[in-house]
# Entry
Amino acid sequence: MLLKIVYLLVRQLLSLAVLVLCGDRAKNAELLVLRHENTVLRRHVGRVRYEPADRVPLEYSIGRLTCAFASSLGGSKTGHR
# Structure
């Protein structure tokens, strides 16, 4: 476990050093490669199909945000006056 943590830490430090020390051409090339990879992945994935179990946390979060927004405007939690 300790070896894995040390490995990940060294890897992050080296990648940070590469980003700091490399020039703009290398950064632009990396961005170009990542954009191409993103485009290819979007082509293969298609439309996301949510299951009912996937929607429950999303609906709960939206409900809490709506209640918080309504209460910040001075309304009640249910939205009725």
